[in-house]
Amino acid sequence: DEDNLYLDPHIDAVIITTRHDQHASQILKAIAQGKHVFVEKPLCLTPEELIEIETALQHAPRELTLMVGFNRRFAPATIAVKKFFATTQQPLTVQIRMNAGPIDASHWTQDSLVGGGRIIGEACHAIDLATYMTGSVPLKVYAESIGSRQGQEPITSDQAFLTIRHENGSISSISYLAGGDKAFEKERIEIIGGGKVALIEDFSLAYAIAEGKKVPLYKGAQDKGHQAELNAWIDAILRGQPAPISWQELATTTWATFLAERSLQEGLPFEIPTVQPPTSADYPFRLVG
Q1: What's the CA gap between 66 and 22, in Å, rounded?
Q2: Helix, strand or coil for residue 109?
Q3: Contact between 137 and 172 (Cβ < 8 Å)
Q4: How far is residue 159's CA from residue 111's CA, in Å, rounded to a whole number?
Q5: What letters, b where the CB count within 10 A reaches 16 and e where it falls short, cover 258-289?
Q6: What is the pLDDT of residues 125-140, one digit of tens each?
Q7: How far apart are CA 254 and CA 257, in angstroms?
Q8: More confident residue, 231 or 147
Q9: At 282, is the pLDDT very low, low, confident or very high (cuts 50, 70, 90)?
Q10: d(CA 130, CA 10)
């Protein structure tokens, strides 16, 4: 009975790794009992749930640390590249390609009510990574996916391109592609700006090019930052410091996935809300242009 965990006064924090449709309700129970939360991505599946979580945090019995499992920003390769661009003042362009591999349409992650689909359920990793790399939250999103030919592709949203404009003028292009072969590298990230270029290959290799020279940044075992993100969450709790990922970043990344899905359905770009409304009755969806 999970309620025993929330009601136990000796338990100070919970880690949620259940199916995606359970995340929001379990987060809300934990917050209500004043417990810190680490939840695997995604944060939640609907705008209503996101607004409920924000409201719950505002009325929590004490200041809590809510962490979502966006591990890529904590990877050694990512941190090395971020440091390389630390002095760059100009907006950046970020290209992230995820060779996600196919998942059967009958799998629970593909069910919009249970898993939310793969944009909400996994491409959120790339949106958070782009947010971290650019140092700026998403402002606008537009998405396109492949078309279905005579019913051959029952799900098309997992073969899509997402374009994101960030608040500081940076722009990100995310290719979430389930139509390839898993033997090929899964993730490749390219960051360009300020006369510099940096690349990350499957989080086992990172290098940069500046002033005509190639600069090694990281080479080693593949490390996507899983241990580091947990350490960061725990340290924040023990030291009473702010959450490793701000609520603004968590919320705008989540909104970006919702609006990317809507963009796929309607073929239009959408602005991402910067301030959440007090109730779910008023969706902050606004067409661009």
Answers
A1: 16
A2: helix
A3: no
A4: 16
A5: bbbbbbbeeeebbbbbeebeeeeeeebeeeee
A6: 999 999 999 999 999 9
A7: 5
A8: 231
A9: very low
A10: 38
Enter the tokens of residue 279: 């109730």
Residue 33: how many CB atoms within 10 A of its CB? 17
- Amino acid in the structure at residue 274: T
Closest residue by Cα to residue 43 from 25, 23, 63: 23
This prediction has a pTM of 0.92
Residues 274/140, Cβ–Cβ less than 8 Å: no
Q: Which of 236, 273, 276 lies closest to 67, judged by CA?
A: 236
Q: How many CB atoms lie within 10 A of CB 40?
A: 18
Q: Residue 190 CA to chain centroid, in angstroms?
A: 17
Contacts (Cβ under 8 Å, ≥6 apart) of 153: 146, 147, 159
- Per-residue pLDDT tens over the stretch 194-217: 999 999 999 999 999 999 999 999
Integer Cα distance of 57 and 208 in angstroms: 40
As a whole number of angstroms, the distance between CA 179 and CA 90 comes to: 35
Give 145's pLDDT tier (boundaries 50, 70, 90). very high
